[in-house]
Design goal:
The protein is mostly helical and about 750 residues long. The protein is about 75% helix and about 0% strand. The protein is built from 27 helices and two strands. It is globular.
Length: about 750
Amino acid sequence: MNTARLRDRIAASDPGLLRLAAGLRTVTAIALTLAVLGLLGVSVPHLVAGAIAAMVATFAVREKQRVPQAVTLALGLPVALVSLTLGALLGSRVVAGDLFFVVLIFCAVYGRRFGERGTALGLIGFQIYFVSLFIGATVSGLPELYGVLGVAFLCSAAARFLLVPETPAGLLERLRQAFRARLAQLVSAQLGLLDAGPEEMDQALEAVREGTARLHETALMIQGRLEEGTADEATARLVQRRIADAEIAAERLGLLVLTARSSERADTLTLHLPGAPAPRADRMPGRDEAMAQVRRDLEALRLLVLRPGATRSGTALSQVRNRLLGYREEDRLPPAPPAVQDVFRGIGETARAVLGLRIALDGPQDESDDSPATARSREELDAEDAVLDADEADGEAQEELTGLKRPTTRAAVQVAVGSSLAIVGGEFLSSHRWYWAVLTCWIVFLNTASTGEILVKGYRRLLGTVLGVLAGIVLAGAVGQHTWTAFALVLVLVFAMFYTAPLSYTLMSFFVTAALGLLYTLLHTYSLSVLVLRVEETALGAACGVIAAAFVLPVRTDRRTNDLLVTVLERLDEVTEAAVDQLSGGTPVELLDQARGLDQALADLRAATQPLTHPITPLRARRDTARYVVALLETCAYHARSLAATAELLPTHPSIAADPRLRRAGRRIGDNIAAIAAHVADERSTAAVETGPSIASLLESEVPGTPRFGRVTDRVLRHVQRLDETLVGLARPLHVPVSAPKR
């Protein structure tokens, strides 16, 4: 049991074990290269060159399929040989070497426009040229260095394809396990929210909010791997559907638990921003006994999530599943206040999503112990699967943005100019190690698109470098000239670098610099002045990158965030319009793909606003506004996802029927989204957001005492209403005029 719990925790903290696999694969490639070269008796500088080349050849290749990976790796070797040769030939020719380095940098960045292979080959070319400068490669030493590179690439291939292999199907399976583990963690956080006292409410709510975000992150990762990791398109669509069901059901359950804890309805977790007062935990008549039952059912739900295929527990587990699925029937709900009964309904819907996820991932199940409620849930799932199988998806690939070339060219020009400045400044600091400034300038431009992002990345790299220098001093003094001890520590630091890279750029820079301190020791060039120079060159390279980004074809942070905000609003409009149209009786479309497009656009915006929300920013009001706007957009995305998921249930769910009245609500929501987007794109726009009671009026039952679910569920109407209200709230921080309803 402890082993299983540890495995679940690891799967949840590192979805798909991507960081662990990347670190192990790189370390294995380096260790194998060092072992082979050590047996061949090469010199220490060549050992260093082989280790760095193996690392570059391993992490540069990013394709998902094994055949494209092999092709890129095979093409990378001649690129590396040419780059190494030119580095040796031009190393003693200052002007020619510097000019070629700038051209190489431009070509390497420009190659990103050709996809992952172009990016990998450009990275290999740049890094191997850097290696030639780092070890002081000479023309006479080229034959042996060619052999070193050949060994490094072969060992990288062995590590990738034999020793630490990664298949799309295997990776997808690990991501599925991570999704289950994170779903169980979210249920545990919801249980903590249920039990939290007044002084613990903020922390418990933050845990639920973080668990929801991490579950959503894993769902997006699975979405990106479905095409390669599944046998056919039908299987991919089914898994996508079940993952979305489970994610939305779990998120809604958290909201229902929060509502049961407070005196007011909670519509989204993101409305509870950091610093906002926590909801009150008011007591309701009959609440304590019902809450005890909710607590037991949440624990049972967590067990079902973690051990969906555990049959050794016998009838007990199936009885738990049957009881939870029974809450989907109105007459099976325990006596409790209305808000708590909503939690029971949410538990039932989440249990149904877990059942669907189990069937999609593990295949047909034993149905001998099914209750009538469980049998009905299976019939609904089978009906939905039949609809998915019958639909002929067009499968149109998402079109590439025609403007993609321009950002690639701009980045190449900016890096070339920044690197030129770094070369000139680096020569003044050191005529032998000026390339450190160029390396930093290059790195701060990777995966950045605005001046603010480059500034933040440069700051983080400088901070990590300073701390790494201090660690390097300690490690170099402890290791001395013990070659293999130093290489062993380098392997540990390289693994830590890759394992922490997605989590913290500062930590990654720290481990890189500490490893370089050991490599300096091996090359007999270690000294305190060298490590101090490393800090100076890093600061210079970061400064040159910021200067180039700010003055050469600049992309201001507010301009980029505005462009991405417009994209998010456009995706939101597409999803909402399609979902409402389908719920109103329109033609069915592929809603989940559109919803994931919205999620990706929102993730891009969230990343682009990091410079605005960073703790070091002096613009506090702007920071708070950016956080608030992103939170409201997350609210809109949640309601849009829920509408899309409900609309896809329309052909098979007996309690949901098309209602043409929703078209009026959809038109106003669409007009409001368009008004906000127009104002963001052009502040001179006169478009205004319209308010009014028309959507809220749909929430009212025409006949008192009617059943909870009518032609259109109150859940659908509530999502539409909350989406409309959130858009009105979004208009205020963006200074979009709000007008009264038209008569």
